[in-house]
Amino acid sequence: MIGAVDIGGTKIAVGMVDDTGRVLSKRESPTDAHRGYSNGLERIIAMLRETVLDARVEITGIGIGSTGMVHPGSGAFGDVDFLPGWQGNNPVEDLARTFNVTVALENDADASALGEASWGAGKGKSRLVYVTVGTGIGGGIILDGQLYRGVDMAHPEISHHVIDPSGPDCSCGYRGCWESLATGPAMAAWFNANE
Predict the structure, then answer these.
(1) What is the reported pTM?
(2) Is residue 130 part of a domain?
(3) In the 8-state DSSP scheme, what is residue 46?
(4) Does 97 lie in the same domain as 158?
(5) What is the CATH number of the domain that holds 135?
(6) How many other C-beta atoms lie within 10 A of the C-beta of residue 118?
(7) Segment 65-77, tens digit of pLDDT
(8) CA torsion sign, 43 to 46 to 49 to 51?
(9) Are 2 and 106 in contact (CB under 8 A)?
């Protein structure tokens, strides 16, 4: 049984998943990134323990998908817009030490693309593009059956393409990026401004 952890800008979701991709138990909590990495880690650990008890299974590994730039090789957070102050912390080491299992970290869109290629509509396909829209916009690309990581392992940040140069400011420093126009918070702000 794999403990699945999804760290987003708005919420953290945790589930216990079998080898067919079926979710046996799950929990959610607000991300509350401003409360710091240690607080987020404590909640992840607690939710993992709860899902193990609910599913009545033994955890054999943990997979983490996180918003923003992460370093899959080392297991550390990079500079993640939605998780200020979490940079450099290493959930792979922390969860491996706590649960004594193998832990892996991927960008959430990359992890979703891999899941879609393994169990979803992309199963058996050699190429796919997966787009996720929530607090941010992310994309994962599968080429010839392999996850595309970009030059020097750089995640392809599809959300930071300028769509409207006169659009709203984006967290990346530009104006009118896809992410500043089409995420959940961006659409809510547009709606409220145009009521």
Answers:
(1) 0.86
(2) yes
(3) H
(4) no
(5) 3.30.420.40
(6) 13
(7) 999 889 998 999 9
(8) negative
(9) no
Q: What is the pLDDT of residues 107-162, one digit of tens each?
A: 999 999 998 998 899 999 999 999 988 888 989 999 999 999 877 766 677 888 89
Q: How many residues does the chain have?
A: 195
**For residue 101, what are the domain limits?**
2-110
102 shares its domain with 134: no
- Neighbour-count burial of 123, counting CB atoms closer than 10 A to its CB (0-12 exposed, 13-18 middle, 19+ buried): exposed
Cα–Cα distance, 138 to 67 (Å, whole number): 8
Using CA atoms, how far residue 138 sits from 57, 60, 111, 129, 135, in Å, is: 32, 28, 11, 10, 10
- CB atoms under 10 Å from CB of 92, counted, come to 20
Tell me the CB-side half-sphere exposure of residue 132, using CA atoms within 13 A. 26
